[in-house]
Design goal:
Layout: E1 4-13, E2 16-26, E3 31-35, H1 42-50, E4 57-62, E5 65-66, E6 77-80, H2 92-102, H3 107-120, H4 136-148, E7 154-158, H5 166-182, E8 186-191, H6 194-200, E9 203-208, E10 211-216, H7 218-223, H8 228-233, E11 237-246, E12 248-254, E13 260-266, E14 273-279, E15 284-287, E16 298-307, E17 311-318, E18 322-329, E19 341-345, E20 351-355, H9 361-365
Parallel strand pairs: 3-8, 3-9, 6-7, 7-8
Antiparallel strand pairs: 1-2, 1-4, 4-5, 9-10, 11-12, 11-14, 12-13, 14-20, 15-19, 16-17, 16-19, 17-18
Helix pairs in contact: 2-3, 2-4, 3-4
This protein binds adenosine-5'-diphosphate and magnesium ion.
Adenosine-5'-diphosphate (ADP) is lined by residues 13, 16, 18, 36, 38-44.
């Protein structure tokens, strides 16, 4: 049995649904990121795992044991909350030492753990300081060190890197993950930052409106999104709407402009409304010679070239469709400029195709 099992958890607050039959199975030692927009139910999910919130129905299992009715203290799951409450009267060292002391671990061992946790968050020099003498980011790192020193096998991190400077946040991603692996922790890490989730997670659970809509490896979630929402939320995608011409090993979809584009295989009915999504990074451009574009799905005119550092984005205006973005490596920067005629294509198997959601595309793509 997996280490953490959430079985059809439901939770409402005054009739507002925060968890809607939420199920998830997390293996021993796995690092899972829960990714979703604000209000999706991420914090509620974590609070139900550690026992701070009781589900209206459904069960929580930790290590094969039904803990749904157990107290927070008896669960062996530590949560680092969004509001990282430190003890204001204790210095940094004693804050981190809190759990080892309570648990009565040998002093030498505890001291070593606390030192290595402070080292990992780069705050060894601040061991004597009080929390209110530290910046918000430093306080958050202390809270992280304190959670890591708790000795729990299950660590629940609610947006643990949120308050940190960009540079530090990115450095800490690797360190946090390798530390969790080294300590053989099972981690659930909540974030609304897709890059953080893609980089850190063994598996990503995409949550929306209190439901897990996809649970898979970062590559799976990025390349094989389960819904148009996931396609749009994880990474950047172009979204195209049209009517299915034929399906099978490849799906051909006709755009309102009459152009035909291809996506991966499906069993969609000919004539039905479909949504095609293709990551900007999978979108290829071919230059038109003498204004003729050969073999591309769509044709358009370059409107802007955005410089982003490692990558660039070429925005192409396609008549009857709108703007299509192609993410290209930096070295292509001088190849395109506004006004150029280009063709747009992609490998069909890299484009996802979905039945038009019954509630419409706009509702499907909403971020709340
Ligand atoms: N204690 C609470 N009382 C009332 N509503 C709550 C409470 N906790 C969460 N909610 C509501 O439940 C939904 C999910 O909240 P939350 O789990 O905090 O989402 P997230 O962490 O993904 O932003 C939100 O609409 C939020 O307003
Ligand atoms: Mg939250």
């Amino acid at each position: 049995m997996p280490e953490i099992v959430l079985d059809q958890l439901c939770k409402s607050f005054d009739g507002h649904v925060a968890a809607d039959s939420l199920s998830l199975r997390i293996a021993d030692g796995e690092y899972v990121c829960i990714l979703g927009p604000t209000g999706a139910g991420k914090t509620t999910c974590m609070r139900m795992v550690c026992g701070l919130t009781r589900p209206d129905s459904g069960r929580v299992y930790l290590d094969g044991r039904d803990v749904t009715d157990d107290s927070v203290d008896s669960r062996n799951a530590t949560m680092l909350s969004q509001t990282y409450a430190l003890f204001p009267h204790l210095n940094v060292y004693d804050n981190v030492m809190f759990a080892p002391r309570i648990k009565g671990w040998p002093e030498d061992n505890s001291r070593q753990i606390v030192r290595s946790m402070l080292h990992m968050v780069h705050l060894e020099q601040k061991a004597d300081w009080k929390p209110d003498e530290l910046s918000g980011g430093q306080q958050q790192r202390i809270a992280l060190a304190r959670a890591l020193a708790s000795g729990s096998k299950v660590l629940l991190l609610d947006e643990p890197l949120r308050a940190l400077d960009a540079r530090l946040r990115i450095n800490l991603r690797k360190e946090l993950r390798s530390l969790a692996k080294e300590m053989r922790l099972t981690c659930i890490h909540v974030t609304h930052d897709q890059d953080e989730a893609l980089e850190m997670a063994d598996k990503i659970a995409v949550i929306r409106k209190g439901r897990i809509i996809q649970f898979g490896t970062p590559r799976d979630v990025f390349e094989n999104p389960a819904t148009p929402f996931v396609a749009n939320f994880v990474g950047r995608s172009n979204t195209l709407v049209g009517k299915v011409v034929s399906s099978g090993d490849e799906t051909v979809v006709e755009m309102p402009s009459g152009a035909r584009i291809s996506a991966r295989g499906s069993d969609l009915q000919a004539g039905s409304d479909a949504v095609v999504t293709v990551k900007t990074g999978f979108t290829k451009l071919v230059r038109a010679s003498d204004d003729q574009v050969q073999g591309a799905f769509l044709e358009g005119t370059v409107e802007r070239v955005l410089y982003e550092g490692v990558t660039i984005t070429v925005e192409v205006r396609v008549d009857g469709i709108g703007l299509i973005s192609a993410g290209l490596p930096n070295r292509k920067y001088d190849d395109y400029s506004a006004g150029d005629r280009v063709g747009i294509s992609w490998i069909p198997s890299k484009a996802s195709v979905f039945r038009m959601p019954p509630e419409g595309l706009e509702e499907e793509m909403r971020l709340d």
